[in-house]
Amino acid sequence: MWKKIGVLLLTIPLLLTTLPLTQQSAYAATFNNPVLYADVPDSDVIRVGNAFYMTSTTMHMNPGVPVMKSYDLVNWSIVNYVYTTLGNGDVQNLNNGQNEYGRGSWASSLRYNNGTYYVAFGSLSTGRTYIYQTSNIETGPWTPYTLNSYYHDPSLLFDGNRTFLVHGSDNISIVELTPDAKAVKSGGLNQVLISNASSIAGSNMIVKAEGAHIQKINGMYYVFLIAWPAGDGRIQLAYRANTLTGPYTGKVVLRDSGIAQGGIVDTASGAWYGMLFRDSGAVGRIPYLVPVTWSDNWPVFGVNGKVPMTINLPIEGQPTTNIYGSDEFNTASGNSGLSKFWQWNHNSDASKWSLSQRPDFLRLTTGKLSKNIMEARNTLTQRAIGPKSTGVTALETAGMKDGDYAGLAAFQAKYGFVGVKMNGNTKAIVMVNASSGTMTEVANVPLNQNRVYLRVICDFTNQTDKAYFAYSLNGTSWTTIGNTLQMSYTLPHFMGYRFALFNYATKSTGGYADFDFFRME
């Protein structure tokens, strides 16, 4: 019941319709934008048959590059990830004071060609570009190929028996790959495709044209970009040409509320949509589904230049699915691994977490010393959901050691958490607020039992961006603790706030914390 109520409450903004079935037959079912009220930036969407697939940026989170699936472009679920780990150095493992916050993998390009799925992305951590390939996007396995250069915001194009990567900022460039997309083609095409691509949007840019998506539609080549003119929000640009190398002509195709960046996709019935995103404060960069029509072979985004907040479902009759959820950590039901909505902060240490050491609990064991949660290995996260979401967990503390901290966080660079702190043999419930940039213990309440319930409420309504913290000794009566966290989206992390389960050591390793469940309300 907990889970059913939680899912219902959180999906109210995304419900397709509340009309009875008899009325649905007379009126088209609708949904409300944003299509996902969560941090899903830099998305790329394709359709294969009746299924849509989408990838997105998750940077320093692992496993990386989530693959989401939908049958209607509105209800999405995570079915796979492209990689488990991208590297194994100190920056990926949070060792020796190093990290890859806001780096990792960026802006993936998703394509399907002749029975193979391709995902290309660059990594600011390694300075390289990767092209992963599989015949089964939902189960893998994925085979990676590495290009020894970093191509910014790459976009794959399969054109006949030739393969290309379009990339760059302002001067949008193209490089030819081998036909199998495994390497850069020696002596292949390598040139600027569109010079000064920002110029059609103005001369004073906060962000110059980037985020390329190249698509060949009805024999014509289209390159979609974003730009951010000074004094304005982000805008969507489109360039087109009759031949691959141009010349290209461009125009601003959407200037509305900063909703921009992404390509377009068609349904089996021939309707077109763009999946674009909007910077939306602490919840992150959230995707909007934008209807696209055509005029003189130009894509026309939105309705009268605006993104409609309520539109007809592209395809009716599909079940509600989500990219977030509750987890009972129940191994008895045959669940041998974590649900796919979870991601670790950086690489996990598989020897220090378990669902089997104590059945039906997630056990996190410390394996290194950390000054704060930002340095902690095995912090387990999932997106906080707007406009408002609540995370609740039950923590058992019998295995914690002197100097350990364990609990539930609203996680970003300026984080806050409610948890348990061990000091010698005594325990205390603490609330920590790091909105100043420094970890500050705001409240400390003695704890005289092993089990405690922790709650974090994230309120993103109208970019209120506040998080509230509470604890309970019995799971029913809640006590507010500490103060309110003013959440803020910071570029060092470059992602929206996440709920995070954590356990870290400040004095000695080997202590463990057991989490009975995580419930999203």
Can you walk through the features of this model?
One of its GO terms (biological process) is carbohydrate metabolic process. Pfam families: GH43_C2, Glyco_hydro_43. The protein is mostly beta strands and 521 residues long. It has two domains: 17-197 and 259-312, Tachylectin-2, Chain A (5 Propeller); 343-520, Jelly Rolls (Sandwich). It is built from three helices and 38 strands. The strands form eight sheets. The protein has an eight-stranded antiparallel beta sheet with strand order 4-24-27-37-29-30-31-32, with no helix packed on it. Strands 25, 26, 28, 33, 34, 35, 36 and 38 form an eight-stranded antiparallel beta sheet that branches. Strands 2-3-5-6 form a four-stranded antiparallel beta sheet, with no helix packed on it. Strand 33 and strand 34 form a beta hairpin. The longest helix has 10 residues, at 2-11. 49% of the residues are buried. Mean pLDDT is 93; it is low at 1-26.
Short description:
This protein has three helices and 38 strands. It has 521 residues and is mostly beta strands. An eight-stranded antiparallel sheet has the order 4-24-27-37-29-30-31-32, with no helix packed on it. Strands 25, 26, 28, 33, 34, 35, 36 and 38 form an eight-stranded antiparallel sheet that branches.
